[in-house]
Amino acid sequence: MNQQIRTIADLDRVIHEPGRLMIVALLFAVERSDFLYLQHETGMNKGTLSSHLSRLEEAGYVEVTKTYRGKVPQTLLRLTGAGRKAFEEYRRKLRKAL
Amino acid sequence: MNQQIRTIADLDRVIHEPGRLMIVALLFAVERSDFLYLQHETGMNKGTLSSHLSRLEEAGYVEVTKTYRGKVPQTLLRLTGAGRKAFEEYRRKLRKAL
């Protein structure tokens, strides 16, 4: 297996999946985001976005905080330090491989 | 949806899948390859590799030729013009998005 192929084989699949790649790229650019903003920007329905966020939370890449804005429940999302690092690493590998 | 996110959303899923990305990257670098070489280079088992190649063939990205080397059956794989173009486009988009 040559170096390029090994790099592709080693890509972080949690981040590589296009739906999650969109979410991580969006969160990478901001301090934090709420669920509705992510939904609007990705065009995903609630279930799909929730499912991707759960996967990212399990991986330790995204921190989910449930709070209130006045009386309205709000879900805030933030990329963790591990998440930022994983995205940078993913980007570095992909650039190298392609 | 911002431009970066739209670019990620529009990525060619046939090529984006890591197994197929390995195959396409390998075939992009050579004129043609036989099945066993691809199997060795990707580390995939026969079934997985066949399944990815079928998907690439359906998309018109890979041409599969069954032939003989002496009396031994041989399967030759080649990236089509459309496949080369799709890979270049995929690479261009991904670089732009990341």
Describe what you observe in this structure.
The structure is a homodimer. Chain A has helices at about 5-10, 15, 20-30, 35-40, 45-60, 80-95; strands spanning about 35, 60-70, 70-80. Chain A is of the alpha+beta class and about 100 residues long. Chain A has one domain: Arc Repressor Mutant, subunit A. In chain A, strands 1-3-2 form a 3-stranded antiparallel sheet. In chain A, α1 runs antiparallel to α6 (about 80-95). The interface of A and B includes residues 9 and 22 of A.
- In terms of quaternary structure, the protein is homodimer
Q: Output the strand order for the largest sheet of chain A.
A: 1-3-2
Give helix % range of chain A: 55-70%
Which fold does the CATH topology of chain A refer to? Arc Repressor Mutant, subunit A
Whole-number mean pLDDT of chain A: 96
* Chains forming the largest contact: A-B, 22 and 22 residues
CATH superfamily of chain A: Winged helix-like DNA-binding domain superfamily/Winged helix DNA-binding domain
Overall domain count of chain A: 1
Major sheet summary line of chain A = 3 strands, antiparallel
Class based on secondary structure composition and strand pairing of chain A: alpha+beta
* End-to-end C-alpha gap of chain A: 16 Å
Tally of DSSP β-strands of chain A = 3
Annotation field: number of helices of chain A: 6
CATH class of chain A: Mainly Alpha
- Which CATH architecture of chain A? Orthogonal Bundle
Question: What's the shape of chain A?
Answer: elongated
Radius of gyration of chain A over all CA atoms, rounded: 15 Å
Measured by DSSP, the beta-strand proportion of chain A falls in 15-25%
